[in-house]
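Thread: Modeling a multi-component assembly for a lab meeting

Hi all, long-time lurker, first post. My supervisor asked me to bring a structural picture of a complex we are working on to next week's group meeting, and I have zero experience with this. I have the sequence lines for every component (192 residues in total). Could someone generate the structure of the whole assembly? Inputs are pasted exactly as I received them:
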Amino acid sequence: MRLAQSYFLSDNVVAIARNLLGKELFTNIDGKICSGIISETEAYEGITDKASHAYGNRRTKRTETMYKEGGRTYVYLCYGMHHLLNIVTAKENTPHAVLIRGIIPNSGIDIMFKRTNKKKLTNISNGPAKMSKALGITTDLDNTLLDDNKIWIEDSNFPLSGFEIIVGKRIGIDYAQEDALLPYRFLLANKK
DNA sequence: TATAAGATTTACT
DNA sequence: GTAAATCTTATAT
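Re: Modeling a multi-component assembly
Sure thing. I ran the full set together rather than chain by chain. Output:
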């Protein structure tokens, strides 16, 4: 079943980031449906987080989406060529968001292959930009409600028993100084 | 108006 | 290991 919008209205963005692991992310782009189990997330805690675009209550055309009510997407272009997918959380005017960094492909894998031009199943979704490319996510999906039939998240009761949740510091944000060390990154890993 | 840097990936040396 | 690709935003002149 799909996650209700109320799921995303909590102020505790870190808890949501952790809880999203194992949920299934769906996209429906041009009638092509793909999905995957969310395997890696990062929390971005709005105005108090130096790594966030909204740090210090910074409000621009780009970050405007983050200030809206939770339960929608925030897609933005990084390095001029990579689309990154975030899930906006918390109430209006609280710019919290969860960055989806990785998925385990579940359905529509052949479509993902075509989109990414890859021949092997490896490296299809082990990075935020590659994942977006595989799922067909672009800035066209920015500020899209998760019940818009273009993108949504379901709780498909993926069994987490065989996995452990690893918590660590976030990646690629060295400029954020001490906030770069916060344990806001969550990922699923096979138990050994 | 101009310049610098970025929540990255890929290819090449 | 290093660099290129490539564009939007933010900060500066």
